[in-house]
From TrEMBL:
Domain PAC: 225-277
Domain annotation EAL: ranges: 450-712
PANTHER family reported in the protein's UniProt record: BIOFILM ARCHITECTURE MAINTENANCE PROTEIN MBAA, DIGUANYLATE CYCLASE DGCP
The species this protein was found in: Streptomyces lacrimifluminis
Stretches assigned to the PAS domain: 151-221
Protein name, per record: GGDEF domain-containing protein
Residue ranges of every copy of the GGDEF domain listed in the record: 307-441
């Protein structure tokens, strides 16, 4: 007994030994097994080097696959055994010191590259053989014609000794002679084959031109033709061939016989079918993959008039949590179970299920009545996922969101349909998940526009596309201008002026709100300083105040306090002239860490306003611990005061809030004042300041200058 090999070279030798033993029995070679192992050893070395290389090179895998063909490993079983051997032993013997998961992923890619190289080399070899067959056909035709006229013995030598199948028939299609190679291809006796007529050898997979070419040849209008053709053997199995048929003429040039030369391509076709299947099906679930799905979808969308399609785009809810908590192996088992359930839902003609990748699946139905069928298909999918999935002893609840697109064929392309389904699926997720939604062109357009705005946001700030409008804050007692709220706008090159409701949520989502908010604060503080230099403060004394909104993201940014201090110092504006507005919803349940920056700013003299007060369902008792000095009452409480008489319920609510605020030494600002009656009623109730279209719409800073001068006169 020999000892186990030590060191990299020993392990490489062991891998080559295992490989040679697995493949040798199905290899057409005159070498001994040991000699064959020596032939595989450098190929094993190339695979090992590709596995451990710093940069992956698929060309090495393709070169090894091609080398197998050169080594006469042309039996499809040789490739299958080679791939199995690489999958099982390459990482074990050649990569034991590396990260196993990465090495196994690279090993899988090497296997795919080997398959591609093997198929390409086999194809090149086939083309070379076809050229040889064509030459043999010409030689055989000349030899047969000469033999028929000159030497029967010479013809027999060529006919019987040929490695390809040869058959001779008369122009009526009666088979006259076949050689041994052709007889072996069909697996029957010579009499069984010769007892058939050429026209009897039809097959459902015959190309439309096969029998047209045959008729032209026997009429003498064609000298030869070459096609790929299938035949039924006597036992019912199918023989695939490369078939070349030539016309033989007599000494006077009259058509007399037809000569057929056949190359058996059955095994090569089966290998190509296997490679095609692997290229168009998901390795984990066995479902059609993205490639095959797009082929089917494109075919469905190009169907004739009256045909429709329905598409369900499914994404599992919370799948990332399962992967992160239970591991990818558990996630894979869940995906396999989901795939099986989906497959059972799409069994009718015209229906298919595919996996696009990750936890995304699609189900397609086609036909004239998909408006009803796609809804039923979506309902079946949702019902199929109700039952929990058992993974590693745990019962996992499966939920999914589905986006449905349905419509007539011929109006949209595959990419547009899939994009609409994807957008609709995310709309279902946003609505809570575990449901399906129908595509809405207007919702699609909004989502596409929103994505375009999100993409354009960073460059917009660099290109100075943002500007600020100011809405005056008016004292309800004497009508004087006490300051203004800064409201940012986006002058978009295509969409025109956009309000903050169109882009602030996007800026929040992308994190751009922090630099954008800093820019707004800097511009607003500088503008407030300019106002002071132009006309001083308001009549009641003190500076004109500038109100700037803070987003939740800015509240949690560690540089908020320092940025504010730096901006005020650079502009030369006292902190009392700045008010930062924070929405009530952002402070619901806020802990001391979140409130600490606001407290520091308040201690400096910066006013903190609680914006949209009354919409966040907050505990009023929390007002005592919040570092706020101003309540901004939401406009929903004052809309009932626009007409006379005012809504008594609204009056009571506002009166109570004002009383509460003043009891806590807070001032009250009201938003959305649009009529004089509304302003008068709010003044009577004791509100301090207001803003709204009744006084002025948001506008350029010069407008506030004009209003302030008018108040002064």
């Amino acid at each position: 007994m020999t000892a186990e090999p030590d060191g990299p070279q020993g392990r490489l030798r062991r891998f080559a030994t295992i490989w040679s033993r697995a493949v040798y029995q199905v290899t057409s070679t005159s070498l001994t097994r040991v000699e064959f192992e020596e032939q595989l050893l450098p190929l094993a070395g190339r695979l090992s080097a590709a596995l451990l290389a710093r940069t992956f090179d698929a060309e090495e895998g393709r070169a090894v696959g091609a080398a197998l063909v050169s080594a006469h490993c042309t039996d499809p079983e040789a490739l299958s055994r080679s791939l199995d051997c690489v999958d099982a032993y390459l990482v074990l013997y050649c990569g034991e010191d590396g990260p196993q998961e990465d090495l196994r992923a690279r090993s899988a890619r090497l296997q795919h590259a080997m398959s591609a190289g093997y198929a390409a080399a086999l194809r090149d070899r086939t083309l070379a053989e076809q050229e040889a067959i064509a030459w043999a056909a010409q030689s055989a035709r000349s030899a047969v014609a000469e033999a028929l006229h000159d030497s029967e013995a010479r013809f027999r030598a060529v006919f019987e000794g040929a490695a390809i199948g040869i058959g001779i028939a008369d122009l009526d299609g009666n088979i006259l002679q076949i050689n041994g190679a052709l007889q072996r291809m069909f697996g029957g006796s010579e009499q069984t084959v010769r007892g058939r007529r050429v026209t009897d050898w039809t097959h459902p997979d015959d190309a439309p031109q096969v029998w047209r070419l045959y008729e032209e040849l026997v009429r003498g209008d064609r000298e030869h033709y070459h096609v790929e053709k299938a035949f039924y053997r006597p036992d019912g199995t199918v023989l695939w061939t490369n078939l070349t048929v030539s016309l033989l003429r007599d000494a006077d040039g009259r058509p007399q016989y037809q000569l057929a030369l056949m190359e058996d391509t059955t095994e090569r076709r089966l290998l190509n079918l296997r490679l095609r299947y692997e290229a168009t099906h998901d390795a984990l679930t066995g479902l059609p993959n993205r490639t095959l799905f797009f082929e089917r979808l494109e075919k469905a969308l190009s169907a004739g008039e009256g045909q429709r399609f329905g598409l369900c785009y499914l994404d599992l809810d919370g799948f990332k949590t399962i992967n992160d908590s239970l591991g990818h192996a558990a996630g894979d088992r869940l995906l396999v179970e989901v795939a099986d359930r989906l497959q059972s839902c799409a069994t009718a003609p015209g229906e298919m299920v595919a996996r696009l990748g990750g936890d995304e699946f699609v189900a397609l139905t086609t036909g004239p009545d998909t408006e009803r069928e796609v809804d039923e298909l979506a309902a079946r999918i949702m019902n199929a996922m109700i039952a929990p999935v058992s993974v590693d002893g745990r019962e996992l609840t499966v939920r999914g969101s589905i986006g449905i697109v349905e419509g007539p064929a011929g109006e949209r392309g595959p990419a547009e349909v899939l994009r609409s389904a994807d957008i609709t699926m995310y709309r279902a997720k946003s609505a809570g998940g575990n449901r399906f939604e129908l595509a809405d062109p207007e919702a699609d357009l909004r989502a596409i526009t929103r994505h375009g705005l999100t993409t354009a946001l960073p460059a917009a700030l660099d290109r100075s596309e943002f500007f600020i409008e100011y809405q005056p804050l008016v004292h309800l007692g004497d009508g004087s201008v006490r300051g203004a709220e800064a409201l940012v706008r986006w002058l978009h090159p295509q969409h025109g002026v956009l309000g903050p409701d169109r882009f602030i949520p996007l800026a929040e989502h992308t994190g751009l709100i922090v630099p954008l908010g800093r820019w707004v604060l800097e511009q607003s503080v500088r503008q407030a300083r300019d106002w002071q230099e132009q006309f001083g403060g308001h009549p009641a004394g003190g500076p004109l105040r500038i109100n700037v909104n803070l987003s939740p993201c800015q509240l949690t940014h560690p540089g908020l306090v320092q940025d504010t201090v730096d901006i005020l110092e650079r502009a030369g504006l006292e902190p009392e002239a700045l008010c930062l507005e924070v929405t009530e919803s952002a402070l619901i349940g806020a802990d001391d860490d979140l409130l600490k920056p606001l407290r520091r700013l308040a201690e400096m003299g910066v006013d903190i306003a609680l914006d949209d007060f009354g919409t966040g369902y907050s505990n009023l008792a929390n007002l005592r611990r919040l570092p706020v000095s101003i309540l901004k009452l939401d406009r929903s409480f004052t809309q009932g005061m626009q007409q006379f008489p005012a809504d008594p319920v609204d009056l009571k609510i506002v009166e109570g809030i004002v009383s509460l605020a003043h009891g806590l030494n807070l001032t009250v600002t009201v938003e959305g004042v649009e009529t004089g009656a509304q302003a008068e009623q709010l003044r009577i109730l004791g509100c301090d300041t207001a803003q709204g279209w009744y006084y002025a719409r948001p506008g350029p800073p010069e407008r506030l200058h004009d209003l302030a001068l008018a108040d002064a006169t």
